[in-house]
Each structure stands twice: as C-alpha cells, then as structure tokens.
Amino acid sequence: MAVQNAALSLGMGNTSVGAWRSRTLAILLMAVIGTIFWVDSRYPALMKRYHAGTGVTAKGALTFGSVYAVDRAMPLRVRVWRTTGNWLDANRVGMTFSFLFGPAALTFLAMVPRRRTANKYLNTFFGAVAGIPMAVCTNCVAPIARGFYAAGMSRESVLAAMFASPALNLVVLAMTFALFPAKVAVLKLATVLFLIFVFAPAAASREEEKGYVCPIEIPVAESWWQALVSVARSYAKSFWYVFRVAFPLMILGAVLGALVIEMLPPQAIVGQASILGIVLVALVGAFLPVPMAFDVAIAYIAMTHGAPMPYVVAILCTLGIISVFSSSVIGKTISWRLAGAAYATVAALGIVAGVIARGW
Prior knowledge:
Elements: H1 20-52, H2 76-90, H3 92-109, H4 120-131, H5 141-151, H6 155-167, H7 170-179, H8 182-205, H9 224-263, H10 275-285, H11 294-304, H12 309-318, H13 324-333, H14 336-358
Helix pairs in contact: 1-3, 1-7, 1-9, 2-9, 3-5, 3-9, 4-6, 4-8, 5-6, 5-9, 5-13, 6-8, 8-14, 9-13, 10-12, 10-14, 11-12, 12-14, 13-14
C-alpha cells in the first residue's frame, strides 16, 4: 500500500514544475495503451454485444465464449480447470490492458501535484468520471485501481472508479435498458448510484488516514532524454508494484470463481423464488469474476429461460459489480475491512433489489 501522504487532501508531494517533459511522455504512454485497447478491442466488442440484442449468448459458465468444452458429466476438478482456462482466455486482452495501463496511470499521477480535493463527494465524482470511459470489467479495473491508489487518489475516488467502470459504461447501460423492463433497469441503476455516491464516500471516511510514500521517484527538471529514462524507470517500478500483487490474486480469483460456479447445481435458479434463494444468488453473484457486460447477458438469458424475476434482478444487481478478485485487490491495497464492506454492500443491495422484485 503505497500512496504519497494521504493526509494532504489538496496537494501531495514535491512534484517539480520542471518535470513537464516526463508528464508529457507519461500522458503519451497512457494514450497509446488506452487507444489501442479501446479502439481495437473493447468498444468494438461491446458494440457487437449491444447489436446482438435479444440474440446475446454465453457459451461458458463465466465467459461469453469458450476454448475448452465443459460437460457436467466431467469430474469437478476437470470442469474447474477448464472453466479457469476459459476465463483466462476470455480476459487475456482486458487483463493485459489493465496490467499495462495501471502502472502508466501510477507513473503519470505521481507527477501531478493534486490527486484529490478536501471534499469526499467531489473526489467520488472524479473517480466515477475516470471510471466510466475505461470500459473494463470489475476484474480488469482492479490492477488499475491499485495504481490509482498508489499514486495518491483518495479511497472514495478509487472505489467510485471501480464501480463505475463495469456498471455505468454507456454501452452496458444501453444494453440494460434495451433488454429489460424499465423498472428493472432503473432498479439496477439505482443500486449502482448508491454504491458510488453513498457507499464509497461513507465507507472511505471510516478508514483511518495513513501516510505513505509513493513507490516511484518524482522527476526533477530534465532534458527529453532524461525524461525518457525517468519515465521508463518509473513505469518499470510501477508495473512491478501492480503486477506482483494483482497477478497471483487474478489466478486465485479465476480458480475460486470456477470452483464456485461449477459446484452450483444446474437448476439452481429454477423454481419459485424464496428469500433464502435470493440471498444465495446475491452472495454468489457478488463473488463471481465475470467479464464486461456478462451480468446483463446472463441475467437476460436467465429471464428468457423462465427464471423468477427476483433471481434475475439479484443477478443483475450483483454480478459484475465486484468479485473475489477485485475484493482481494482492495484488501491488499487499501484494507480488508473495506473489501469486506464493499462485498457485503453489493450483496445486500442485490438482496434488497430481489425482494423488491418479488412484489412485482
């Protein structure tokens, strides 16, 4: 957990005004990484899913596609490893982006003298604005969030960015309103806004402020060559800072997610909805690590196959907002108490939403 003096709310560190060349190169690095991912991969994929409309499909237990066939007749260990392999293959592009972009963001933000304000709600808003266009799932946003926090962004900004990226993306919202009745889509949106603008600032303010030292060096006045060397060195340190924690947790999260989904009975959400069933669906939904827009797709598929609406709503309001992987990164980066609170709140909102849907 490395952040420059979090107690200083209006400015951090002694960023040199002569480091503009380094900042320019850091911005260029983020722009190149982001543009390649957003233009070549992410937004074309999201638009493809949006245009699929009611024909959207999911071939894997945790993924839209699959490279390894999984049959319920297979032993559990075989299904778990195959589902894990499918997850890693499906997330290879998004996770590559996050492991490259997160360190780039840390490199740049460490050179910015002001990463937060004294107003926690304004910090929350800035985090949400940063998260919406990133268009990465709750898993892929986790390494980026680690970079954000290490650079000195506030806890509420980091949480808001993590919730907003998978849930407030405009294409995903459009899919939600196109595939579900308006009251279902509005309920989902309300839970997301609660997480961002109520839970994030409230939970963050309960955490004790600590003083940290940024894991990378802030450059001083320099030539272009010195700036290039400085940014390259800082990026390498930032990459290792993010990778050494997030990568092992990613593998663990994939295995745990595969284990949980493969242990569930095939007809788990078929039949009359019950309070206990809603609770279980919400707890599992908040645990599973799924890709971008998978929550919308799987909830719609469940609805069209006759699943009770309370279960559909619980899935929609929990799946893809947080996961075992993103929770573990929050725990290792900020605090395990905050990670537990985030998971519990997402699950609780899913339960409340499911109970509300029971009365429709």
